[in-house]
Amino acid sequence: MQAPSVGGVMLPRGNGETVRLSRGASLTDFAEKINANPASLVAVMMNLGEMVTATQSVSDETLQLLAGEMNYEVQIVSPEEEDRELLETFDIEFGEDEGGEEYLMPRPPVVTVMGHVDHGKTRLLDAIRKTNVVAGEAGGITQHIGAYQVGTTVNGEDRKITFIDTPGHEAFTAMRARGAKSTDIAILVVAANDGVMPQTIEALNHAKAAGVPIVVAVNKIDVEGADPVKVRGQLTEFGLVAEEYGGDTMFVDISAKQGLHIDSLLEAVVLTADASLDLRANPEQDAQGIAIESHLDRGRGAVATVLVQRGTLRVGDTMVVGDAYGRVRAMLDDKGNNVEEAGPSTPVLVLGLTNVPGAGDNFLVVDEDRTARQIAEKRAARERNANFAKRVRRVSLEDLDSVLKAGLVQELNLIIKGDASGAVEALESSLLQLDVGEEVDIRVLHRGVGAVTESDIALAMGSDAIVIGYNVRAAGRAAQMADREGVDVRYYSVIYQAIEEIEAALKGLLKPEYEEVELGTAEVREIFRSSKLGNIAGVLIRSGEVKRNTKARLLRDGKVIAENLTISGLRRFKDDVTEIREGFEGGINLGSFNDIKIDDVIATYEMREKPRA
Ligand code: GDP
Question: Binding residues for GTP, per the UniProt record (predicted)?
């Protein structure tokens, strides 16, 4: 049978079999799985109108598209799935409580305090901690371990609440972006003298996107000019309607400074949890949960605060946290007391880990030290690989059309930041009015005035959103973060241009632009003739590096003699290699092209997608 070919390259052809690939895989990874030549996959992509190099990490959609073209099914395995599978090989399940209903016991809610800067988040966390230190408790020094637990009485019943002790939504979203759910309820702090501010809305949107119920703490009611009623009115516009106005959000007027109505706030948290959440966990199984904070302590080594989500963690247990592991040497609670065990929703500081895990890493207790070590090592190896394949593209405007066609998303999530609220609103309402057919919805997850922040990027990561910056840029490390995480951030200074591009993308018209990037140059020193391969150039690499399978052109006396050549063979001494660096010698074969002379220069390049202005 004659295999189909594109431009002379044999097309690999499957029988509809399924190929499993990690998120962020390259064409080379794909080729390996189906025993094909990576160059042939590059050719297929080119035929589909996409320039992709063999080793570059590509989007899920590109892999799907490619697979479809070659009659394979591709199954993209997310990092979370990969981890689940890794744990399965050890017969461990993460994230589910073991046993049936009868094993589930009520657990305290876990709360994060969010809101605009200076509205009193830190002060509130302090006030809660102080008013609720259990009376008569042997006085360890209260220490900051990243979370604490307090007691309160609701309807005559003693109840507990766990607070994540990092105010603001950065930690919250960072964890969520990594797939970890740490928070059950959000307290949104709004200063009554200041009202709803940009970060109030940002926080609110983060909580909503995560599906976390909100309790509003209207703070600073002791200050002159405080207007708690106005705050209620303002928040109505954002879908938070106070109970007293017929809504289902509890608002509590407080003063963090004077310690006013803190108990009512705690009660509201408990009541909201009871009304809208079913917070139960199995306390009997091996402990599981997430890391909240960690650092390297000079005296004690790696210390990490973990939040137990199910099961009971005990001193002596063997645990894995992210890619750290170890036997729990000691545990301290939020008051600095040594504890022997910690049940669901309890935060504890753990000593005895090999290294420092990351915030949001999951932890689990396993039976054997060996298992813990193996899981940790496998995770560390995977992390290294993932870093190699760094630029994982999430949803971007260019591939939106294929994403939509593949049915991978039905809505385009946007985050809009601009220099003035009027402009942001104008942009938003124009975008929402775009007529883009029935299949897709445009959803604005968050809008605000100011630079594109790390928190915006984190929200985009967690929700596969595209970020639009109108007359603003990314602040601080946000640009790097977007780049690293493959979040598409678009800058505009003309509203119409933004609207046109989004519309074009939704209609599948926006094609990526490419630019040529020079990779390396090689000077021809010698010519070898091979009966099998034709002419081989003996070269010295003058700049950059020369890689196999990249595009090349041949220059003679500064003039281009031939274009569109391919480095089809690359050798150092007797060995086939994939690349040769500046200053080294080697042999280059340009396929069927043989017109090579001494002193010619072979310049290699690749086509890279050009960021749009
Ligand atoms: P954060 O940025 O939200 O963490 O705000 P802080 O907790 O640091 O509070 C900002 C400022 O507001 C500090 O000077 C606090 O002392 C003050 N503050 C916080 N809560 C209250 C309050 O209820 N009443 C008054 N008068 N001041 C408060």
Answer: 115-122, 165-169, 219-222
Q: Are residues 562 and 595 in contact, defined by beta-carbon separation less than 8 angstroms?
A: yes
Q: How many whole angstroms from 119 Cα to the centroid of ligand 1?
A: 6
The count of structural domains within the chain is 5
Residue 95 lies in a domain: no
Asked whether residue 211 falls in the same domain as residue 232, the answer is: yes
Check whether 233 is labelled as a binding-site residue. Answer: no
Domain containing 302 — which CATH number? 2.40.30.10
φ and ψ at residue 52, rounded to 5 degrees: -135, 135
Q: Which amino acid is at 308?
A: V
Residues 199 and 309 in one domain: no
**Alpha carbon distance 472, 493 (integer Å):** 8
Residues in the chain: 613
The residue whose C-alpha atom lies closest to atom 17 belonging to ligand 1 is 120
Same domain, 495 and 519: no
Q: Within this chain, do residues 165 and 269 fall inside the same structural domain, yes or no? A: yes
With cut-offs at 50, 70 and 90, classify the pLDDT of residue 332: very high
Longest dimension (CA), the chain: 93
Residue 195, annotated as binding a ligand: no
pTM value is 0.62
Are 236 and 177 in contact by the 8 Å Cβ rule? The answer is no
Does residue 85 lie in a domain region? no
pLDDT at residue number 283: 96
Domain boundary among 55, 77, 99: 77
In whole angstroms, what is the distance from residue 567 CA to residue 510 CA?
31
Q: Which amino acid is at 490?
A: R
Tell me, yes or no, whether 101 lies in a domain: no
532 by DSSP, 3-state: which? coil
DSSP state of 165: -
- 214: annotated binding-site residue? no
Same domain, 457 and 582: no
259 and 316 part of one domain:
no
User: Pocket around ligand 1: residues whose beta carbon is below 6 Å from it?
Assistant: 115, 117-123, 167, 219-220, 222-223, 255-257
Tell me, yes or no, whether 141 and 247 share the same domain.
yes
Whole-number pLDDT of residue 1: 38
Whether 199 and 115 share a structural domain: yes
Distance 117 CA to ligand 1 centre (A): 9
Name the closest-CA residue to atom 10, ligand 1.
118
Q: How far apart are CA 510 and CA 501, in angstroms?
A: 7
How far, in Å, from the CA of 121 to the mean position of ligand 1?
7
Q: Could you tell me the two tokens for 84?
A: 């689940």
CATH code of the domain in which 242 resides: 3.40.50.300
The DSSP code sequence of 396-461 is -TTTHHHHHHTTS-SEEEEEEEESSHHHHHHHHHHHHT----SS-EEEEEEEEES-B-HHHHHHHH
Q: What is the pLDDT of residues 151-206, one digit of tens each?
A: 999 999 999 999 998 766 666 776 666 666 889 999 999 999 999 998 899 889 98
Average pLDDT over residues 231-244: 94
- Is residue 95 marked as binding? no
Q: With contact defined as beta carbons under 8 Å apart, do 345 and 181 qualify?
A: no
**Cβ contact 129:142 at 8 Å:** yes
Residue 189 Cα: closest atom of ligand 1: 3
- Could you give the 3-state DSSP secondary structure of residue 339? strand
Which residues have a Cβ under 8 Å from the Cβ of 234 and sit 6 or more positions away?
195, 196
Question: Does residue 298 lie in a domain region?
Answer: yes
Range of the domain at 315: 288-386
Of 386, 421, 436, which marks where a domain is finished?
A: 386
